[in-house]
Structure formats: structure tokens, C-alpha cells
Specification:
By secondary structure, this protein is of the alpha/beta class. It has 2 domains: 1-99 and 304-353, Isopropylmalate Dehydrogenase; 100-265, Isopropylmalate Dehydrogenase (3-Layer(aba) Sandwich). 41% of the residues lie in helices and 20% in strands. It is built from 12 helices and 14 strands. Helix 1 links the parallel strand 1 and strand 2 (34-37). Helix 1 crosses helix 10 (292-305), helix 8 packs parallel to helix 9 and helix 11 (309-324) crosses helix 12. Bound molecules: 3-isopropylmalic acid and magnesium ion (MG). Magnesium ion binds next to helix 9.
Length: 353
């Protein structure tokens, strides 16, 4: 298995280094994996003048899976839009056709106190958000900033074709089948035509999955319900922009955004795996970041691309163990637990493995 390793910017290199340590343990145990690194985001711009250098895209295309850290940093915010780090991330998602983004939100019982919500609201939480990742207002044309009637206007296009909705619907129903068989489709069909079509296609696809209970919710209500009573949800399917926002909200239910991995899959289960958090420039280079979301992303790589569930479980159990041991990076630290650095957390997971 070839893994393209793309550390990116900010805390990206630190957290990815911990995930690589985990992969090296697996390799020492006999896993046939090859790893090769390449720059992306601001690092891509620095190295090759492009947030997604050709060589990086080529490596990612040739790989079975991609492990990504994070992209972005204040030093790149003034670059022309196509040169900004985020564009590199959006382009690789689009180029590799990674249309199904899986973002689980799971609460480790020991971290209930680290959530900003009451423990009884979040304990036992196990939620999966399936976010469409290559369409919507993120990619719709036309888009731009121009002068109309003597003033500047900014515009984007929210657009979904029925085939785009259908393919992510099938992924989401498939996942719901393996979980609690409850799927909630989130949209804004009371206002947007794009959402009206989304909802119609969901209802059509539901006919293929009679065992799954499909429900529909407007995104504003879904935002409220996620905070009010998150355990009512099992699997959520939603578009790109709503999924972006709701998955950040859902991350806080689990204590810290530093805990949440993600998988972005194409139709052949080739995937890119990344923590859902960003590059955290404020703590970059200080060995403070939480590497667990990235390590858990490696577990998702084993689960979804390599279809090696035993190894996925092994990695997840190692993470559970270090949490149970009371080790905490700053973001999940609470009174009475032991504060550790990013690399110490990585070492602890390796030891637990
Ligand atoms: C995410 C991020 C990205 C997104 C940014 C960095 C472009 O917020 O993966 O959720 O909006 O998709
Ligand atoms: Mg986001």
C-alpha cells in the first residue's frame, strides 16, 4: 500500500509525524506500506509556487491513500486567491474525486468533562456526519467579485446535480445500514431550490434502503438540535457548506476538535485522511497540538481504504488506552489529568500499540 504523506502547514508537520510513528510500528509488525511525503498548502506555495504542486498531485494520484495534516496560515492570507493554501486542499479533493467526507463525532467517556455541554447531554454520543465534498457553493460557477451598478458585489453559486446528490446518498445510506439505520438529511429546502432537489433525490434513493429510517431537517434546526440533544442523531448526510459548519459544531460535543478524524472517499474507497481541525498557527511549532485526530485518521484509513478492520480497531484501542491512562494534550486537559506534549502523546500511543 502506498501512502502519500502531505503534512501541510502550521501544526500539520507535528501531528503527521506522530501518525507516521504509528504507521512505522505497523510496518515493523509486517504491514506492507510505503510512505512518501510532499508539500501542500502554504508549504506547496513556498516550495513550488503552487498550493497543490504538480508533483504532489501526481504522488497523491499514484497512492492508495493520502494522509494530510492541515493547511493555511496568516502569512498566506494576502496571496491571490488561487494561490492560497485552502485552494490546494479544495483542488486535491476535486482532482481525486473525493466526494464523500465521513466525519464521526464520538465521545470518549473520560472526556465528557472536556465538552462544553453537560456530560449527560453528550455521554454515549456516537454520530457520523457524511458531508458531500466536491460540489455545492464551494465549486459552483459562476463565482467572483465584480463591479455592478457602481459597487462591488461578491457572488457564488450553490449547485448540485442529481447524480452528485445520488452518489453521496448511496454512501450515506450504506453507512447508516452499518450503524443505527437512521439517516437524517440536512438541507434548507424551505428557501433554496438546490436543497429542494437534494431532498427529492434523497427520498428517491431511500427506496433502495427500506431498512433505513430517513428523516429531513432544515440546517438551522439541525444546528440547534446538535447542541440541544445530539444523541437523537445516528447518521447525518448533508451538502458541502452545511457539513463544513455542522461538523465543527459536532466536534465540540466530543470535547475537542483535536479528537476528530475524517475520511474523504471516492467511489473506489481510495481516500484522503485528515483531522477535521485546521493548522492552528497560534500553537504551531510548539509541540502542543493534539495528534489524536490524525492518528485516528490512520485508523479510518485502515477501516475504509485498506479494509483491515482489525488494525483499525487496534489503533483506536491504543488511543482509548492513552485516554484511559489520563494523558491529555492542552485542548482536552481537565483538573486531575496529566498534561503531555504532542510528541509525548504520539509516543504513548505507540507504546499502547
Ligand atoms: C474543512 C476546512 C476546509 C473546508 C477549509 C480549510 C477549506 O474547514 O475541511 O472543514 O472548508 O472544507
Ligand atoms: Mg471546516
Amino acid at each position: 500500500m502506498k501512502i502519500a504523506v502531505l503534512p501541510g502547514d502550521g501544526i500539520g508537520p507535528e501531528i503527521v509525524a506522530q501518525a507516521v510513528k504509528v504507521l512505522e510500528v505497523l510496518r515493523a509488525d509486517g504491514a506492507k506500506i510505503e510512505m512518501e511525503s510532499a508539500p501542500i498548502g502554504g508549504a506547496g506555495y513556498d516550495a513550488a509556487g503552487d498550493p497543490l504542486p504538480d508533483a504532489t498531485l501526481k504522488l497523491a494520484r499514484a497512492a492508495d491513500a493520502v494522509l494530510l495534516g492541515a493547511v493555511g496560515g496568516p502569512q498566506y492570507d494576502t496571496l491571490d486567491r488561487p494561490l492560497r493554501p485552502e485552494r490546494g486542499l479544495l483542488r486535491i479533493r476535486k482532482e481525486l474525486n473525493l466526494f464523500a467526507n465521513l466525519r464521526p463525532a464520538l465521545l470518549y467517556p473520560e472526556l465528557a468533562g472536556a465538552s462544553s455541554l453537560k456530560p449527560e447531554v453528550v455521554s454515549g454520543l456516537d454520530l457520523m456526519i457524511v458531508r458531500e465534498l466536491t460540489g455545492d457553493v464551494y465549486f459552483g460557477q459562476p463565482r467572483g467579485i465584480e463591479v455592478r451598478n457602481g459597487e462591488r458585489v461578491g457572488f457564488n453559486t450553490m449547485l448540485y446535480s442529481e447524480s452528485e446528490v445520488r452518489r453521496v446518498a448511496h454512501v450515506a445510506f450504506g453507512i447508516a445500514m452499518k450503524r443505527g439505520r437512521k439517516l437524517c438529511s440536512v438541507e434548507k429546502a424551505n428557501v433554496l431550490e438546490c436543497s429542494e432537489l437534494w431532498k427529492e433525490v434523497m427520498i428517491e434513493v431511500a427506496k433502495d434502503y427500506p431498512e433505513v429510517a430517513l428523516s429531513h431537517m432544515y440546517v438551522d434546526n439541525a444546528a440547534m438540535q446538535l447542541i440541544r440533544a445530539p444523541k437523537q442523531f445516528d447518521t447525518i448526510v448533508t451538502g458541502n457548506i452545511f457539513g463544513d459548519i455542522l461538523s465543527d459544531a459536532a466536534s465540540m460535543l466530543s470535547g475537542s476538535i483535536g479528537m476528530l478524524p475524517s475520511a474523504s472517499l471516492d467511489e473506489h474507497n481510495k481516500g484522503m485522511y485528515e483531522p477535521i481541525h485546521g493548522s492552528a498557527p497560534d500553537i504551531a511549532g510548539r509541540n502542543l497540538a493534539n495528534p489524536l485526530a490524525t492518528i485516528l485518521s490512520v485508523a479510518m484509513m485502515y477501516r475504509y481504504t485498506f479494509a483491515d478492520l482489525a488494525t483499525a480497531d487496534r489503533i483506536e484501542n491504543a488511543v482509548k488506552k492513552v485516554i484511559a491512562q489520563g494523558l491529555r494534550t492542552g485542548d482536552i486537559w481537565t483538573e486531575g489529568t496529566q498534561k503531555v506534549s504532542c510528541s509525548e502523546m504520539g509516543d504513548a500511543v505507540v507504546a499502547a500499540l
